C-alpha cells in the first residue's frame, strides 16, 4: 500500500498505459481519478475497478480544450481537497501527417507539438499552486523512447516528447523548494491497442530486433515505474528520466546484425 490515501489524477487513462497506471495506483491504496473525454467509458472502467474494492473516480478532460485541464484540477481539489500525484499521460500523433522534415506540413508539426506540450504545461501550471499549499506533490510526465532517440518519421511527436523531458527538468528545478518532485517515464515499444492497431507487424518485428530484451513492454511495467515516482520511495528523486524500453538503443548500432550473424553461425 505504497500510495495509501494519496489522491492521484491520471490523464488519458481509459486504456493502455493510462488504464494500467490507474489500476496500479488503486491497488497501492490511492484514491484515483481517471481523466478522460469519454466519460461514459471512463465510468464503466471505474465501476469495474471499484467492484474489486478500489477507489476510482472520473473527471472530464479533453486534450483539445486547454480549459479542461484547469477545470479537472479544480474539480478534484473541490472533491478531495488535494492532489498528491499528477500523471500527464496524454500524447498523440497522426501517422498520416506526422512524417519526416520533407513531407510534414508546418501546420501539422505545430499542431502535434502544441497539443502534446500543452497537456503537460497547462495541467502542471494548474496543479502546482495547490501542491505548494499542501506541502508538496509528485508530477510524473509520460514521454517516449521517441523523445530520446531520433527517428526517420513522426518528427512532431519526437520533438514534442523530447521537449516534455526538458520541460519536466525545468519544472523540477523551479518547484523543488516547494517539495514538488517532477520526473519522466519514457516507455519503449509497449503492447497497447494503439501500437498493435497502428503499427505494422513488420515494423514491430524490426523494432524488436534492436531491443536486447526481445519483447514488447507491458503497460503494467510502465505503470510500475509511475508508482515508484508517485510513492515516498522516490522522495529524494526529481528531474530524472526513467527509460522503460527493454534496452532499446543501448547496444552498438550493429547489434541486430550481430545477433543475426551469431544465430546463423550456430546453425
TrEMBL record:
Keyword Ligase (UniProt): no
Keyword tags: Oxidoreductase
Keyword Oxidoreductase listed: yes
Gene3D superfamilies for the chain: NAD(P)-binding Rossmann-like Domain
GO BP terms: bile acid metabolic process
GO molecular function terms listed in the Swiss-Prot or TrEMBL record: oxidoreductase activity
PANTHER family reported for this sequence: 3-OXOACYL-(ACYL-CARRIER-PROTEIN) REDUCTASE, 3-OXOACYL-[ACYL-CARRIER-PROTEIN] REDUCTASE FABG
Family the entry assigns: Belongs to the short-chain dehydrogenases/reductases (SDR) family.
Protein name as catalogued: SDR family oxidoreductase
Organism of derivation: Holdemania massiliensis
